[in-house]
């Protein structure tokens, strides 16, 4: 496979006795990168340890507020400031993308109106993202199980949002776990959305655990489809291992996508 793999550091931070051992093990498995949910997870110590092991930082969350997100005009000043700081940090540490969120639905606001409001906000910061060479990846999240009432809950909403902003640096984070819960038909949607995909997340469903035979997604087929479609960005593993040996789970996930 030609795409790159990463893993969500907060899930695996206790998988080894120290940060250096964790990242050295991940590098030995073949991982080129790790990623963070929020910058608080990506402290200077963690970033430095990852870099010492030869790992890059693939992604981190660019602003607070899955619930109070880009569809809320009252949050725009705060979010745009946080995104500016995050974009500059991403450029400094050579991180290719930061995550942003559409927000929960607002009473009286249609999904389309929420998209217009969110796109208006990102148009203001997109020029900086273009200047710095960093993607703004809007995450698709399910609104049935984990993030009730989240407005950006379908791939089609996300791709229409990207087309509305019209910036080469505004993409979607295609989270396979969330898409499976909301819509299914994952491979067809991956192919259709490919021009707009800036980052991919994985996890098994149901349970958000390992991508093994106990769950309903065929990740070998998904990995092959991603490769065939020409995806060359990061695939970030965001699953919660059921067993105590998290390093073994991390290695198995890498091998699953290594072809």
Describe this structure in words.
The strands form 2 sheets. The protein has a 7-stranded parallel β-sheet with strand order 1-9-8-7-6-5-4. The protein has a two-stranded parallel ribbon with strand order 2-3. 47% of the residues are buried. The chain has one domain: Divalent-metal-dependent TIM barrel enzymes (TIM Barrel). It has helices at 9-12, 19-29, 44-52, 76-92, 111-132, 155-165, 176-182, 186-193, 219-228, 246-258, and strands at residues 4-7, 33-34, 56-57, 60-61, 97-100, 135-139, 170-175, 197-202, 234-237. The chain starts with a strand and ends with a helix. The mean pLDDT is 95. With 259 residues, the protein is α/β, with parallel strands linked by helices.
Largest sheet: 7 strands, parallel
Radius of gyration: 17 Å
Contiguous low-pLDDT stretches (5 residues minimum) are: none
CATH structural class: Alpha Beta
CATH topology: TIM Barrel
Dominant shape: globular
Mean pLDDT: 95
């Amino acid at each position: 496979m030609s795409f790159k793999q990463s893993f969500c550091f907060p899930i695996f931070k206790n998988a080894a006795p120290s940060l250096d051992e964790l990242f050295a093990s991940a590098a030995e498995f073949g991982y080129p990168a790790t990623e963070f949910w929020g910058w608080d997870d990506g402290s200077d110590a963690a970033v430095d340890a990852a870099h010492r092991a030869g790992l890059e930082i693939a992604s981190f969350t660019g602003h607070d507020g899955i619930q109070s997100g880009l569809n809320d005009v009252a949050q725009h000043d705060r979010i745009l400031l946080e995104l500016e700081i995050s974009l500059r940090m991403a450029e400094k540490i050579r991180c290719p993308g930061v995550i942003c969120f559409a927000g929960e639905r607002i009473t009286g606001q249609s999904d389309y109106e929420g998209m217009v409001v969110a796109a208006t906000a990102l148009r203001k910061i997109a020029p900086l993202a273009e200047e710095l060479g960093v993607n703004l990846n809007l995450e698709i999240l399910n609104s049935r199980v984990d993030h009730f009432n989240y407005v950006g809950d379908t791939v089609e909403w996300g791709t229409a949002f990207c087309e509305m902003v019209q910036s080469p640096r505004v993409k979607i984070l295609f989270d396979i776990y969330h898409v499976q819960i909301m819509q299914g038909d994952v491979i067809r949607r991956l192919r259709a959305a490919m021009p707009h995909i800036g980052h991919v997340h994985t996890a098994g469903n149901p349970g958000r655990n390992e991508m093994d035979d106990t769950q309903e997604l065929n990740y070998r087929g998904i990995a092959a489809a991603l490769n065939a479609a020409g995806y060359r960005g990061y695939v970030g593993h965001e699953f919660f291992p059921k067993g105590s040996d998290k390093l073994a789970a991390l290695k198995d996930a890498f091998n699953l996508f290594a072809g």
